[in-house]
Amino acid sequence: GVFAIAATLLILNVDSQVKEGTTALGHRLLEIWPSYIGYAVSFVTIGVIWSNHHTVMAQLGRVNRTFLLLNVFLLMCVAFLPFPTRLVAENLSHRSQLEPAALAYGATMTVMAVCYLSLWLYAISGRRLLRDDSDPRTVTGITRSYLPGFPTYLTATLIAFVSPLASVVLFGAITLFYVIDSSFFGDDVISAVP
């Protein structure tokens, strides 16, 4: 449900910008092009996160309160994603304000990557929550694919201090990478958190 609500909130961000303009509707629809890009990137990101979440849950035979709390933190990040998406979309054309927007988006994604990795590492530690019949190769593959998430997002975020536009482009590229990675190589293992 959280994934569906977060994805729905993304389109409300686009809708609100259509209403804000004072120019003719056709011109306004063209003017808000950054909102379309923000919507697409974040919607696909949420979709990949949902797919990964499904993959993680399929490997588990049980859960406990700590795991559920870690999951709550992950879902909190997912629910928060429409906010920094809107900041980036609204400021993509106003480069002077793009740096804090890119930093907010990047911080959200970096924290989300940490939450995802923590959730997974907690579940597999000592095979604590894994199904008895879980395939060790699948578990290792998921772990290996989750490890680069944090440093990748942190790097893209820090680039915003030098070039906010490059940072935003990198966030889109990271999403594209995870879509391609999970499409071609994700039969058993879906990529890390985008």
Please give a structural write-up:
It is a single chain. By secondary structure, the chain is mainly α. Helix content is about 80%, strand content about 0%. It has helices at about 1-20, 25-30, 35-60, 65-80, 80-90, 95-125, 135-145, 150-160, 165-185. α6 packs parallel to α9 (about 165-185). The chain is elongated, with a radius of gyration of 18 Å. Mean pLDDT is about 85; it is low at about 190-194.
How would you summarize what this structure contains?
Helix content is 78%, strand content 0%. With 194 residues, the chain is mainly alpha-helical.
Task: Provide the fold topology.
Layout lengths: L1 H19 L4 H7 L1 H27 L5 H16 L1 H10 L3 H30 L11 H11 L2 H10 L5 H22 L9
What is the overall number of helices?
Answer: 9
**What is the CA-CA span between the terminal residues?**
19 Å
Quick one: overall form? elongated
Major β-sheet, in short? none
Mean pLDDT: 87
**Uncertain parts:** 188-194
Structural class call reads mainly alpha
Beta fraction? under 5%
Task: Using the CA coordinates, give the radius of gyration.
Answer: 18 Å
Number of strands: 0
The percent of residues in helical segments reads over 70%
Tell me the series of helices and strands, N- to C-terminal.
Answer: HHHHHHHHH
